[in-house]
Backbone:
């Protein structure tokens, strides 16, 4: 079996593994994200030890963003404007390539997750949106089998949305935009809007209507812009599984029967779904990046 390396770089942890997308991981580790030097020293340790399993044919890096994806630009592989202390300007690709000495293929964590969900889908599909609603809101897009990378990468997690009246004058938590989608609906926004609720919300709590409305607005925008065959919703906030039927119903309502083939609940149940990957989808996606380069 040809062996590849996979790195899913996240704000709280880096998951590193060796193996392949189809064969799974032979060895894997989770390294807590600290400053870049300390973190990459631990990543180097993992790949040095994993060397005993055999040589790597390449490594895939599925990284948190924003990150430069244009191979022709000087910022390729660099972390761009971020709130993560010490990481802005870090050249993720160069640092990883120095450790492993094989080609490194890069995409965002959510684009890689979208690729993985396409690969693992029971039906043959070529258009999929992967959304994570966690510390932030990230969106990865596969259109006609390829991840969307233009000047940068999709940032629709920061799209502007219509505010829900039950949110009152909640200002939003996005450092850049205040009440963009991420500022209103990511985990920290939920915690800030309803600090006394923790993570358990009574059935009549406004959280359900507010959160599902914002996510449904995102689903509508995704349907209108890239016509996905599937919208996968993951991340910490989506552990509240009762959101799924609410989001499907609200998306239908917002679309108002306008989009052909997207106007009944049965379709919504197949369209808006949780992830199917057992392993973190970003890690599976990182293998796919390495294998396709
Ligand atoms: P990250 O985005 O850092 O990768 P997660 O996807 O686990 O991490 O998301 C973490 C965020 O999700 C936190 O803001 C947390 O408050 C929120 N969260 C985690 N679990 C739940 C839950 N069961 N219900 C609501 N929010 C949750
Ligand atoms: Zn924002």
Residues:
């Amino acid at each position: 079996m040809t062996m590849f390396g996979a790195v899913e770089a996240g704000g709280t942890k880096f998951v590193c593994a060796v193996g392949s997308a189809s064969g799974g991981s032979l060895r894997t580790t989770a390294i807590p994200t600290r400053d870049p030097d300390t973190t990459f020293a631990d990543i180097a340790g993992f790949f040095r030890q994993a060397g005993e399993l055999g040589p790597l044919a390449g490594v895939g890096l599925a990284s948190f963003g924003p990150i430069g994806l244009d191979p022709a630009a000087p910022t390729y592989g660099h972390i761009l404007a971020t709130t993560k202390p010490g990481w802005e300007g870090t050249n993720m690709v160069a640092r990883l390539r120095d450790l492993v000495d094989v080609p490194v293929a890069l995409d965002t964590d959510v684009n890689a997750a979208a690729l993985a969900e396409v690969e693992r889908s029971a039906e043959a599909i070529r258009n999929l949106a992967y959304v994570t609603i966690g510390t932030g809101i990230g969106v990865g897009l596969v259109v006609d089998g390829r991840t969307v990378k233009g000047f940068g990468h999709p940032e629709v997690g920061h799209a502007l949305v219509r505010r829900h009246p039950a949110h009152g004058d909640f200002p939003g938590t996005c450092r850049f935009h205040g009440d963009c989608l991420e500022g209103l609906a990511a985990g920290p926004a939920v915690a800030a809007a309803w600090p006394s609720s923790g993570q358990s919300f009574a059935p009549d709590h406004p959280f359900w209507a507010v959160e599902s409305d914002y996510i449904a607005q995102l689903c509508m925008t995704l349907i209108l812009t890239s016509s996905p065959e599937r919208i996968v919703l993951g991340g910490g906030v989506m552990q509240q599984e009762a959101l799924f039927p609410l989001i499907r119903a609200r998306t239908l309502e917002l679309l108002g029967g306008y989009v052909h083939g997207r106007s009944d609940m049965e379709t919504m149940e197949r369209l808006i779904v949780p992830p199917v990957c057992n392993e973190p989808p970003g890690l599976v996606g990182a293998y796919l990046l390495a294998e396709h380069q």
